[in-house]
Amino acid sequence: MTSGPRPACEDIVVYHNPSCSNSRGVLALLRERGIEPRIVEYLRDPPDRATLAALGKASTHGIRGLLRSKEPLHAELRLDLPDIDDDALLDAMLAHPTLINRPIVATPLGVRLCRPPETVLEILPEA
Questions:
Q1: Residue 2 lies in a domain
Q2: Which of 20, 54, 84, 124 is catalytic?
């Protein structure tokens, strides 16, 4: 017996990059638990400023923690300087979505940068 596609769970959102193994790992963990999240491929459909700011505020890392420091552009733009404020970081991330770290997962229980993928388990409701 085959089951049909799982309905999307609109209250769990994964900001996803299909080329990222951590991002794929989060999706696998969710799907193993029968959860089909709403997937936002943020490189094609980046979040707006208010959404990105809210994700940073709700996460345990803040805006700077959602910034992908391994991205070469991070160094080019000198975003590692301590006096760069959140507004400037948001400007950079909105202008260059590759600077957004991944995967970011939002559920009713919180927001996490899920590196490693198992971090998503911290914000999933009990089965």
A1: no
A2: 20
Per-residue pLDDT 10s for the chain (127 aa) are 344 444 557 799 999 999 999 999 999 999 999 999 999 999 999 999 999 999 999 998 899 999 999 999 999 999 999 999 999 999 999 999 999 999 999 999 999 999 999 999 999 987 5
Residue 53 lies in a domain: yes
DSSP state of 6: P
Q: State the pTM of this model.
A: 0.90
| Contact present, 22 and 117 (Cβ < 8 Å) | yes
Secondary structure (DSSP) of 90-109: HHHHHH-GGGB-S-EEEETT
CATH of the domain at 58: 3.40.30.10
Residue 114 annotated to the active site? no
1 lies in a domain? no
CB atoms within 10 A of CB 19: 9
- The torsion angle over the Cα atoms of residues 91, 42, 58 and 119, rounded to 10 degrees, is -130
Q: What phi, psi does 91 have (nearest 5°)?
A: -55, -45
